[in-house]
Amino acid sequence: MGDSKLILCCFIACILFLGVNGENPYRYITWKVTYGDIYPLGVKQQGILINGQFPGPHIDAVTNDNLIISVYNYLNEPFLISWNGVQQRRNSWQDGVSGTNCPIRPGKNFTYVLQVKDQIGSFYYFPSLLFHKAAGGYGAIRIWSRPKIPVPFPSPAGDFTVLAGDWYKRNHYVLRRLLDSGHNLPFPDRLLINGRGWNGYTFTVDPGRTYRFRVSNVGLTTSINFRIQGHKLKLIEVEGSHTLQNTYTSFDIHLGQSCSFLVTADQIPQDYYVVASTRFTRRVLTTTAVLHYSNSKRGVSGPVPGAPTIQIAPSVMQARSIRWNLTASGPRPNPQGSYHYGLITPSRTIMLSNSAPYINGKQRYAVNGVSYVPADTPLKIADYFKIPGVFNLGSIPTWPPSGNNAYFQTSVMAANFREYVEIVFQNWEDTVQSWHIDGYSFFVVGMNGGQWTPASRSSYNLRDTVARCTTQVYPRSWTAIYMALDNVGMWNIRSENWARQYLGQQFYLRVYSPANSWRDELPIPKNALLCDRARGRHTRPF
């Protein structure tokens, strides 16, 4: 009788698994993560390479594909990869951050099993531990629409990836020691485009044809402005949302953000600058790549085209101009606008306020007065095995406390599956903040200067704002989002300024369902790494 029950359980499990993944293709990827010498600024540095490449290889997938990614860690430090913008539906087990996964120890490997469920668009992956992101280890993720799903623009002649961001000449472990000692990072040395410095990378185009440029800000500390000399940028997608196709001469991209443009090679055949420069910095860093017409006989010439530098108002106006294309299909054939986010009343409001306190004489960063410290055991694993003493729910308030006191805590906020929440990011500092939420796409309903109040809702866009996973908050301003908590799991909410994230400006949102059903959340992976207080425990038999 016991054997027949086990067989029946295995049969049901297989049916459930195949129902989720069986009809969708599997793509198998193997990565070897190593140190290697890189020269992005002409000076030898120790970089993190994936299969010998910096930046790492692209991941190309189609909506609902299953990605089986085996990662072999040949570094001398623990390592994890996270997937910026991939929602990991029902599966925070694969998120690749310290709150969900034990690290891959040196000389060991781990196989991620992801599904890009109901997603399209432009994203990227990156190393999430020990400030490794400052050494590379990042690369592009491109999720294509299924062949029968219409997209709201003709197929481009080519698809280019632009991974741009600030860079330091100092090795990552030197920067990490600086932060650990209680200091902030210095101003970055330069900007890179696809791992190269000034005019170090070339995009080749044919005259008269149109190309897609997918641009991600993979930097550590600064917003950037992107532009192409003499060419217009037609915005078509932001982090998986098709947008109204507005045209820009330059475009601000904040830390952690990704977007796509159509660019037509409609100018005199020659070479043109592709430019990235820092935004909201007194000292402006600029770097260039080259847009090369295939029949060009003339190199780049003339001054590098300018763009806004410290001005905030043009950036706010531009951000408000990004609108959802209501009639376009998303990952599914139904129009994006068929989801009426503005007609749903949020069940509660959460306000998150960033700060830069000194604690025990050292620089830290905090959310609602709490500076996050990682636990010795991943929160998700501790939650599954009910290991006491790792974290406490409610260890971060849902509203900024009065006063300026800040303290250390492994901060976890409680939330319920299928809640619909309003989150207000309140920024009283003089720098632009960039916030990311793992596991979700949210609606950026409003942003403005000063203090948010309930009366601020009168300015919300409740019809066609864009859905995305990373949003900026301007200095001494607020940004409000609506978010449906439809993804059970333990999800990281963090600053995309990597020094601030490293020094405590992050926490975890535990989205809980009491059903304990595979319908709501996939079970712990059979191959899950177990460490520290979870060591010696067992995952599951199948």
Automatic annotation (TrEMBL):
<dbReference type="GO" id="GO:0005507">
    <property type="term" value="F:copper ion binding"/>
</dbReference>
<keyword id="KW-0732">Signal</keyword>
<feature type="domain" description="Plastocyanin-like">
    <location>
        <begin position="159"/>
        <end position="296"/>
    </location>
</feature>
<dbReference type="InterPro" id="IPR001117">
    <property type="entry name" value="Cu-oxidase_2nd"/>
</dbReference>
<dbReference type="InterPro" id="IPR008972">
    <property type="entry name" value="Cupredoxin"/>
</dbReference>
<feature type="domain" description="Plastocyanin-like">
    <location>
        <begin position="377"/>
        <end position="514"/>
    </location>
</feature>
<dbReference type="GO" id="GO:0016491">
    <property type="term" value="F:oxidoreductase activity"/>
</dbReference>
<dbReference type="Pfam" id="PF07732">
    <property type="entry name" value="Cu-oxidase_3"/>
</dbReference>
<comment type="similarity">
    <text>Belongs to the multicopper oxidase family.</text>
</comment>
<keyword id="KW-0325">Glycoprotein</keyword>
<feature type="signal peptide">
    <location>
        <begin position="1"/>
        <end position="22"/>
    </location>
</feature>
<dbReference type="InterPro" id="IPR045087">
    <property type="entry name" value="Cu-oxidase_fam"/>
</dbReference>
<dbReference type="InterPro" id="IPR011706">
    <property type="entry name" value="Cu-oxidase_C"/>
</dbReference>
<dbReference type="Pfam" id="PF07731">
    <property type="entry name" value="Cu-oxidase_2"/>
</dbReference>
<dbReference type="InterPro" id="IPR034273">
    <property type="entry name" value="CuRO_1_AAO-like"/>
</dbReference>
<dbReference type="Pfam" id="PF00394">
    <property type="entry name" value="Cu-oxidase"/>
</dbReference>
<protein>
    <submittedName>
        <fullName>L-ascorbate oxidase</fullName>
    </submittedName>
</protein>
<feature type="domain" description="Plastocyanin-like">
    <location>
        <begin position="33"/>
        <end position="146"/>
    </location>
</feature>
<dbReference type="InterPro" id="IPR011707">
    <property type="entry name" value="Cu-oxidase-like_N"/>
</dbReference>
